[in-house]
Amino acid sequence: LPKEIVDIWIKNSDFLKPFKLLPALASCSLHEEQINEAIRYLEYCVNRLKSEDQAINNNLLILYLKYRPEELLEYVKVRKDQREIFFDELMIARLCTERSNKFLNEACVYLYTRMKWYEEAVELALNVNVDLAREVANSVQTDFNEIYSDELKKVLWLRIARHVIEKENDVNKAMQFLQELTETIAIEDVLPYFPEFVTIDQFKDAIRTSLAAYTDKINSLKENIDQAAKSAQLIRKEIQSIRQKSCVVNTNDSCAKCKFRLMTRKFYVFPCNHKFHSDCLYQTSLPYLIPSKQKRIDELQKLLHDIQTVPVISGVSGALSHFAKTKSNQQQIYSNEEILLLKSELDDLLANECPWCGEKILRSIDEPFIDPLDYESVYASWL
């Protein structure tokens, strides 16, 4: 691959497609001069032409890997934080591990980190230097799962600390790690890795720091428990006050839906002062009920009707009279307590909130007034 040929390719780059020249580059001999010319042309494509062709970038990296490993490291290092890359990082990482040397190992660490293989990256980085392993541990991202990221960071830093203690026999350096990473690892996490001859004096500061941290956590937990107890007490008082709440219903009050007198049949009253007949409430709430709740309400209403009882209003809802006496063998199947439970369940399903000003109506604010399937027929009826 003569230098003149590469010069012509570069000069006529506007008319040539670099990927079609790859077979010619691949067929060049192992002579150093030809390899340098092949690298020169591929570098021109990547750096000057900004080629995004994966084959071009892969071929350049393979040549770097074989003949200029330090430039492969520089290439990968520059692109370690780029969101989009144009080479096969998995293939290049595999080739780096096969040819293993200082530059390729470091390049492989950056590739592993890009692929989020953090544990493998730290393990390999420790064969290069501890600072590189620390760089990997600090690069763990928290965008996918914060809890998992914290646990992963702890695993990585423990691996680094263990290496420093066991391989480098540097207790002071390990203690320095502890001081820098008090939020990630504690003295008790690394104690099993220290040799038996280490004196307690070397751990004094770390132990004091750990005890102070535990004291702060205990005090914080006590405050949270006290706050939770106060909140629970307030909730109990609020529930008690709601149970004792009452409202006045006049004989001339009407149903909010049908406008007929409220007293004519069973009804519900809400804290917002909206009043509905029980059947009107069901019709009003129906569009906002899921099928399973609709089915259960129908079952409860039929069951209570068969027992021939009057629906009870408890709290914000109820009926005008108390339970009727059981008159048949069928009615005697249910005790008053069971009937109360059935009515309470019906109240929870049907009257847990006002259908006109509760959360259900607020959640439906973005729903169209007219069903898209019925739009044409409704529009035609207006003409």
UniProtKB/TrEMBL annotation:
A biological process from GO: organelle fusion
Give me the Gene Ontology terms describing cellular component.
HOPS complex; late endosome membrane
Q: Locate the coiled-coil region(s) and give their ranges.
A: 204-245
**Which membrane topology describes this protein?**
Peripheral membrane protein
Q: Which residues cross the membrane?
A: none
Q: Where in the cell is it found?
A: Late endosome membrane
Record domain Pep3/Vps18 RING C-terminal: where: 250-304
One annotated GO molecular function is: protein-macromolecule adaptor activity
Q: Where are the CHCR repeats?
A: 9-173
Q: What is its main location?
A: membrane
Query: Which keywords does this chain's UniProt record carry?
Result: Coiled coil, Metal-binding, Zinc, Zinc-finger
Pfam families (alphabetical)? Clathrin, VPS18_RING_C
Its protein name is Pep3/Vps18 RING C-terminal domain-containing protein
Its source organism is Brachionus calyciflorus
